[in-house]
Design a protein that fits this description.
Distance between the termini: 80 Å
Structural class: mainly alpha
Number of helices: 5
Strand content: under 5%
Strand order of the largest sheet: 1-2
Order of helices and strands: HHEHEHH
Length: about 140
């Protein structure tokens, strides 16, 4: 069983997947920071100071707070603003990954070779073809 496990771990696909997961996690952190710290404040400023993270609906009458963190301490809340932010994060991440895959595909795409123009046959072959053509007549 240990030998099979070593063989499984040594496969290139497993290592590629592990590297992809680690880089994906780090990349997700970058995108979250980009969204939370750069894009969402601009979107909020454009729409009059909106902060999507503090959009919520209290699920009980005990929730009277105006911020999400305080409301969560008071009771159950439906934090739809956090969902909006997560959706924007996803769309940005998906678009960036699309651009990366497109760039890699363009790099991997090989130029199609130009069709080869047949070289003129040697002089002796041309002479033999002319003789053949004359004999056919």
């Amino acid at each position: 069983m240990i030998g099979e496990f070593k063989e499984f771990i040594a496969k290139g696909n497993v290592m590629d997947l592990a590297v992809g997961v680690i880089i994906g996690g780090a990349f997700g952190t970058i995108v979250k920071s980009l969204t939370d710290d750069i894009i969402m404040p601009v979107v909020g400023a454009v729409f009059g100071g909106l902060d999507f993270n503090n959009y919520f609906a209290g699920l009980s009458s005990e929730v009277t707070a105006t911020t999400l963190d305080a409301a969560k301490e008071q009771g159950a809340v439906l934090a739809y603003g956090s969902f909006i932010t997560a959706t924007i994060n996803f769309l940005i991440l998906a678009f960036i990954i699309f651009l990366m895959v497109k760039a890699v595909n363009n790099m991997m795409r090989k130029e199609e070779p130009a069709p080869e123009v047949p070289a003129a046959p040697p002089a002796d072959v041309q002479l033999l073809e002319e003789i053949r053509d004359l004999l056919k007549k």
